[in-house]
Amino acid sequence: MKTHKKLATATVAVIVITSGMHCCNRNASTVKTTDVSGQAAVDDVAVSELVPLDIKLPRPMYISHRSANFRDFIPNLEPLSTKPRPPFLAPVGTKNVAFGKPVTCTDEDPIIGKLEMITDGDKEAAEGSFVELGFSFLQHITIDLEAEYNIYAIVFWHYHRDIHAYFDVILQAADDPGFTINVKTLFNNDHDNSAGFGIGKDKNYIETSEGKLIDAGGVRTRYIRLYSNGNDLDEFNHYVEVEVYGKAAK
Questions:
Q1: Residue span of the structural domain in which 156 resides
Q2: What pLDDT is attached to residue 81?
């Protein structure tokens, strides 16, 4: 099960290969700096070896009575697109390597749901399909992929049953569970450094049934961590699902 929470928007660097299609950044894994979000995309894979990711989207299910001016109270908010997200190209054989993988969290006993629901494949907005964390402050979840992979895209859903924007959304990858070795920041929409990881380059965003897709650029990693710090309606953090698309590292 899963719940709703604060939102954030991201600007993701991608390369257009064909009309309306995005391609992964294969060189992000070579970057030595901590923050790799917003890098220019450079692709070294032949176009013939790239295919659109088969991302199964949940049914749209907005149930909201919010007035249209709620956007005026969310800082650094990106416009809500009215068009479907373009297909994302990745190497042949790329799949969701987070499915069924273990999840740990700063809140070991969520108010609603179980942590294993975050990687169980259920992305629906129905009651019982989200996790609500109990403490109202900056929290994080960590997914152990149980092996090293080259990651091309990460898609996550906080809560899309209602209109929400989550704050201080930060996505990181690392080689160790303590996030001290080879840490890379793939997304950061913290506009005032309230989370303590520096001011992010990305924007707050409105949750939708498409989830938030981040171009991971082929980064080689084992652990994925997501931070959030409440949303524009309340102080709770929620997760419906996290998908990590990659291939076994060679």
A1: 15-248
A2: 87
Q: Which positions ≥6 away from 17 have C-beta within 8 Å? A: 23, 43, 47, 50, 89
Q: Is 181 buried (19+), middle (13-18) or exposed (0-12) by CB count in 10 A?
A: exposed
CA distance 65 to 103: 33
Task: Give me the residue label for tokens 């989370």.
Answer: 195
Residue 8 lies inside a defined structural domain of this protein: no
pLDDT digits (tens, 9 = 90+) for 7-52: 333 333 333 333 345 555 433 333 333 676 644 343 556 666 999 9
Indicate whether 7 belongs to any domain.
no
Residue 1, strand partner residues:
none
Distance CA 116, CA 120 (A): 6
- Domain contains 69: yes
Tens of pLDDT, residue by residue over 88-121, are 999 999 999 999 999 999 998 899 989 999 999 9
* 91 domain-assigned: yes
Q: Beta-carbon neighbour count of residue 56 at 10 Å?
A: 8
